[in-house]
Design brief:
Length: 424
């Protein structure tokens, strides 16, 4: 056995979360999945839950299903997610997509903060977050402006730089807790304190941290948050997103979309909108029941495994991958595009190389006797390796590193086109 394999076997043998990988479908030796930060794998229990909803609820109960659990599904699931993101049971609800939720929350914050005209985000943020703010500012009026805090190295944000951008005229700061390219992760408490000292509100995008990095929304007095549930939360493609509003703010905030599901009593069909009490006012229309039913078992699995245990394994795994890459890949022209300190990064690691795109193509392409490795590519030169501690093993990380070594040494990437697919 090769030394690296010996090492990964040993680490896998003492993994306290080992059993969870068998609770996921498609554990196929010919494919090693390293993209759970973009789309999580389906738990077996989810496949059963969706079938159950179709056959035993939709098919047999039809419209009666609305009174048998569908109507409240978004709130019930919000309660299930709440402890995973450090929120109270009445502070989280599932609805719409992350993009739409960011809009609803950012709009409501700007109305509450009337008179202040600056919004701050950072250069590492996901494009949809920035577009949403640009569109919001366009509709609010030309006195409003967006300030994008720069990153000095493209990997981290210096909190001193952030502090300088948040002035007394700042209404809102929208940041990704964990950055989608580098995995840089903010200290939530420090940022929340910094933002509040200036009288601004903080809106977190938790898409890349929920379910894998402990989040403490209540303890840090964070105001607002939203995030995806199809990444580490394993809710499936297009799964509904969640949103969080701190309890004491809920009655003061107003959604920009006055839909009937956000009304205090949708089924009185009144002609006057009256926002529901609490977090429900942020709903808009009919909830996606099939997608919500896929989420329940997935969230329960994360609660059972425990967010602290998941974080501990994930930190060991990112550490192992980075130190192995430093030994084997830096001499071949790669650099590490993620923070070197474990507490400053989420659960993916970016490995940078000028030929990153073609290296990814070579990794994904099946070859006789070699598994297909599925990471993803992020502009301009990142091979992004997502580690989902529920199902990824140390062996996966050892194998992908060795595969990249071979691709580089034999220049296998040269057999692939530089033309990019629609979704990378
Ligand atoms: C994946 C991701 C999104 C995606 O938003 P959708 O509305 O679900 O398409 C938004 N923000 C961040 C930080 C993400 O990582």
């Amino acid at each position: 056995m090769k030394p690296l394999q010996k090492q990964t076997r040993k680490l896998d043998r003492v993994d306290p979360l080992w059993k969870y990988r068998y609770l996921f479908s498609f554990d196929d030796k010919s494919m090693i999945y390293l993209d759970g930060n973009s789309l999580g794998k389906p738990p077996n229990s989810t496949v059963r839950a969706v079938r159950q909803t179709v056959e035993h609820q939709w098919e047999s109960r039809l419209i009666r299903g609305w009174n048998e659990g569908w109507y409240d599904a978004g709130s019930v699931l919000g309660e299930t997610l709440a402890p995973i993101i450090g929120a109270g049971p009445n502070e989280v609800i599932f609805s719409d997509s992350t993009s739409v939720n960011l809009y609803k929350l950012a709009y409501s914050a700007m109305k509450l903060q009337r008179g202040k005209t600056r919004i701050v985000t950072d250069a590492l943020n996901f494009p949809t977050d920035i577009y949403i703010l640009q569109g919001l500012i366009k509709s609010l009026g030309e006195q409003y402006s967006l300030y994008i805090c720069p990153s000095r190295d493209g990997i981290e944000i210096d909190l001193n730089d952030l502090e300088r951008t948040v002035d007394d005229n700042t209404a809102l700061v929208l940041l990704s807790h964990t950055a989608f390219t580098s995995a840089f992760t903010y200290d939530m408490q420090e940022v929340s304190d910094l933002v509040h000292r200036k009288g601004a509100m903080i809106l977190w995008d938790l898409s890349h941290s929920a379910g894998v990095v402990p989040v403490e929304l209540s303890r840090t007095k964070s105001d607002l948050a939203a995030g995806c549930s199809y990444k580490y939360l394993n809710g499936g493609p297009g799964a509904p997103a969640f949103l969080y509003v701190r309890e004491d703010l809920q009655q003061q905030l107003e959604s920009p979309i006055w839909g009937w599901f956000g009304d205090s009593s949708p089924f009185t069909f009144s002609r006057e909108y009256q926002p529901a009490d609490g977090i429900r006012r942020f709903l808009a229309g009919t909830p996606p029941v099939l997608s919500l039913s896929a989420l329940q078992p997935a969230l329960e699995m994360i609660r059972e495994a425990g967010i602290e245990a998941l974080r501990e394994k994930s930190m060991k795994q990112t550490e192992f991958l980075i130190s192995t890459a430093e030994k084997l890949l830096l001499p071949l022209g790669c650099t590490i595009g993620s923070p070197r300190e474990a507490h400053k990064r989420g659960s993916h690691v970016s490995i940078r190389h000028p030929e990153a795109y073609r290296i990814c193509r070579a990794l994904i392409e099946p070859k006789p006797g070699i598994p297909a490795f599925i990471p993803d590519f992020r502009e301009p030169d990142n091979i992004r390796i997502g580690i989902a501690p529920l199902y990824n093993t140390f062996d996966h990380l050892g194998q992908v590193t060795e595969r990249i070594v071979k691709i580089l040494k034999r220049q296998e990437y040269k057999n692939h086109s530089t033309l990019k697919d629609g979704v990378t």
